[in-house]
Amino acid sequence: MRKETITPSPVNISNAMSVDVEDYFQVAAFDNIIDRSDWDSLPHRVSKNTNKILDIFKQSDIKATFFVLAWVAERYPELARRIVSEGHELASHGYAHQRATHQTRAEFKDDIVKAKKILEDIAGVKVKGYRAPSYSINKSNLWVHDELLDAGYQYSSSIYPVKHDLYGIPDAPRFAYRCDNGLLEIPITTTQIGGRNFPAGGGGFFRLYPYPLSRWIIQRGNRQDKQASIFYFHPWEIDPEQPRQGAASFKSRFRHYLNLDKTEARLKNLLKDFKWDRMDNIFLK
Known about the structure:
The chain has 285 residues and is an alpha/beta fold. 35% of the residues lie in helices and 14% in strands. It has one domain: TIM Barrel (Alpha-Beta Barrel), CATH 3.20.20.370. The protein contains ten helices and twelve strands. Strand 9 (190-193) and strand 10 form a beta hairpin. It is globular, with a radius of gyration of 17 Å.
């Protein structure tokens, strides 16, 4: 599985800031209560929230990677263009947030090719990176790396080396590595304690952990592992006023709505406390 580990310089490490651009109704946790055919009729909040994130990044003078659903870019092309015009990296999150584990190989290929073309046609830049919806690459579908390379992607950031009920490869390499076919895989950051990997890359865990713990985890990765941390979050995570899905299970509602009112302030602290850059600037040099 691992061919070559990619290690950034430990001196003055920049961490990778990434945003998975999807709307609140597109998350995997709501698949069973929100039909895809209803997406266009629901209140859309992704453009407003992503523009707010772009404003925050501009104020903090940082660049990031935006993994954008092509479904979103089709409906809000000006959003993809703003991402590029302000110096951020535009990358692919697939077309319509379909988990790779729920697709056949042919369906996955069609999805990533379609998404890449839509994003490139809208924004006029080459799309180099991909992130699978819900980190849906596991040991059963490692063929996705071959399809990504064939489709012209240079890297994936789709594997989470943790044990989780929805995703993860607990024994996967923790740091960026070359797959056998040469594609670069950049796993989401974990911290290792007692021989076990714990999530440390953001998302719901950033909302769950007290901010000092999140800061300590990233510092630990920079100082002890001498690695850049890969941080991610979603536009809906800074939006406590989004429509609530009362039909979702208690677990799904807890995960989705926990501390939404705290995310923006924590994010601003994170931007001040660490150096940040685009994924491609850190790993594709």
